Amino acid sequence: MRIKVTNVYVDDQNRALRFYTEVLGFVKKTDVGKGQYRWLTVASPEEPDGTELQLALNDNPAARAYQQAIFQQGQPAAMFYTNDVKGDYERIKAYGTEFTLPPTDVTGSTIAVLNDTCGNLIQISQLARH
Question: What average pLDDT does range 68-72 have in this prediction?
C-alpha cells in the first residue's frame, strides 16, 4: 500500500494552482472537470510521478469548517520537505508571501510556516543534518 493522493482544501482553485505552481514550484499533474466539479492536483517536480496534492475546493460546509478551524488554531494543513528551508523562505517571501513563522530551529529540523493565500497555513521543513 502507498499514498498516491492527499489533499488540502482551498477557497479558490485557480488562485491555488497559481500559488502552488508559480510560488512554491510544484507542477500541475491533473486538471479535469465536469460542470462545477474539478479534480486538480499538483506534484513535486522532483517526483512528478510521486504523491499528488489535490487542491480540493472547500465548497462542502464540513470542509470549509475544518479548513477554517485548523487555520484559526495556527495548524498547518500540509507539510513539505526541502533541502534548504532558509533559501526557500527567501525565494517564497520575495513573491510577497506572508510567513507566520520564519525559519526556526526546532528539535531535529528547521521549519517555517506560510499562508498559501487560499485559506491554509503550510509548513516547510528541513531535517537537521548530523
Answer: 97
Check: CB of residue 104 under 8 Å from CB of residue 112: yes
Domains of the chain by residue range: 5-127
Give the integer Cα–Cα distance in Å for 28 and 44: 9
Three-state DSSP state, 118: coil
Query: pLDDT digits over 7-28, tens only?
Result: 999 999 999 999 999 999 999 9
pTM above 0.90, yes or no: yes
Identify whether the C-beta of residue 32 lies closer than 8 Å to the C-beta of residue 39: yes
**Among candidate residues 24, 16, 112, 115, the one with its CA nearest the CA of residue 72:** 115
> 5-127 adopts what CATH topology?
2,3-Dihydroxybiphenyl 1,2-Dioxygenase; domain 1 (3.10.180)
Least Cα distance to 126 among 116, 112, 20, 100 occurs for: 112
